[in-house]
Design brief:
heterodimer; A: 114 residues; mainly beta; 10 strands; B: 108 residues; six-stranded mixed β-sheet
């Protein structure tokens, strides 16, 4: 597809379980971001990948959160031992070269932790 | 001080009105600025970049004041379709940081 693809679109899990969220950026885009948005709130920066550079993990809220980007393309955000406060929409975005470029967002993954 | 701050609103205006949003940012070294629009339950989409000299795109005008560390968005002749949340975005040197957004509701 031409756009940023995220899966699953919805995920319901029980407190304490681990979840993996996937992002397929636009082909050729070197920059990839993860944000999360709680209901009625703004976008909270989580992590930023740029090419082969070390990712900027400064936004990850706790060590239960981790992300990787394989082969400079697909990214996976992993949340271990999920808590109810992790419930949010997790948005992935990519851009052609970096943070001065237009971001293209996926439709997000709605995570609900029961 | 929060990194990127916006008045959350909501701004309720009639069609045809002119409305302005402001956004302040904390990092004086920030180099790039944007306005994104987010419709309810949708992903954000770029509305316009903000340049030092100010820029205009149809009914929308964006301005940057580096000395005071704020950017603004002016919408003229508001349309019903302008109803959305407007997000201020600033490059903080490490990543693009979003403000919490200002909600605009245009009524007939």
């Amino acid at each position: 597809g031409a756009g940023v693809s995220q899966s699953p679109s919805n995920k319901v899990t029980e407190k304490g379980k681990d979840v993996e969220l996937r992002c397929d950026p636009i082909s050729g885009h070197t920059a990839l971001y993860w944000y999360r948005q709680s209901l009625g709130q703004g976008l909270e920066f989580l992590i930023y990948f740029q090419g082969n550079s070390a990712p900027d993990k400064s936004g990850l809220p706790s060590d239960r959160f981790s992300a990787e980007r394989t082969g400079g393309s697909v990214s996976t955000l992993t949340i271990q031992r999920t808590q109810q406060e992790d419930s949010a929409v997790y948005l992935c975005a990519s851009s052609r070269t970096g943070k001065d470029e237009k971001l293209f967002f996926g439709s997000g993954t709605q995570l609900s932790v029961l | 001080r929060k990194e990127v701050e916006q008045d959350p609103g909501p701004f309720n205006v009639p069609e045809g009105a002119t409305v302005a949003f402001n956004c302040t940012y904390s990092n004086s070294a920030s180099q790039s600025f944007f306005w994104y629009r987010q419709d309810c339950r949708k992903e954000p989409k770029l509305l316009m970049s903000v340049y030092s000299s100010g820029n205009e795109d149809g009914r929308f005008t964006a301005q940057l004041n580096r000395a005071s560390q704020y950017i603004s968005l002016l919408i003229r002749d508001s349309k019903l379709s302008d109803s959305a949340t407007y997000l201020c975005v600033v490059n903080m040197g490490t990543a693009l940081i979003f403000g919490k957004g200002t909600t605009l509701s245009v009524s007939s």
